[in-house]
Amino acid sequence: MSTSITADTTVTELVDVWLEQLRAEGRLEKTTIDEYSRVLRKRVVPALGHLPLNELSTRRIDTVLSDLGAQSGNLQRKAKVATGAMLDVAVALGALSANPVRGSMSVPRPRTDRRELTLADLETVRAAVGAWMSKDRPGPKSSGDMADIIDLMLATGARIGEVLAVRWNDVNLDTRSLAINATIKTEPGRGTYRKPLAGSRIVALPEFALAVLRGRRGVLRDADVDAVFPTRNGTWQQVNNVERRWRQIRTEAGLEWVTPNAFRGVLA
Question: For the chain, which domains are there?
């Protein structure tokens, strides 16, 4: 890579080489590299791709970031992070004397509401989930397991992906415990799969979580993947589908401040 990048290398060429190098190194998650690729190729390359590295400037970077900021603050942040990391490599290889992203416009993170869930809030959340699930909606019937997923997050302090990765083999109703040992990933070309965690943990289950699991065990057919929360086809659910359903629920109920992370650790 060091011999192929010079001051005359175009931004498009650098993008290709840098992404290839990231994949070869294997240090980052494939999903992270795919997101870098999407942002760079769709948002940065159209504006800067034709330029050789020695014609890049902070002013040009600011123009791109400003345009993206008018569309989405999230896109703006991702573009700055990816472009900055890529051009750091060009500086290290001597193709640039300085990284023009480092002096570019500040991209603040959005302010988040740090409010914590109370027991009264939980009752409001549960009522909102119930109302959403009971609504008559056009198209395929919405998933009926949102209430159970949220209750298991509350009981275990686990993330959405960790809850969706729970298998019946991980559940021990006799000892009232549950093993959290994997998460769910979705990648282009591979689909949705269960990825083991570096370390597993055993969680004691409160009575309401045991009731959820007993109820599901009594009505669910065995899924192909032994999932507690399978799709209708018996496969792993995708994290983004659960996140999308929760966004619909909280928007309709005026609970925009209640993110999935708000459920973690409230009762665990």
Answer: 11-92 (1.10.150.130), 119-263 (1.10.443.10)
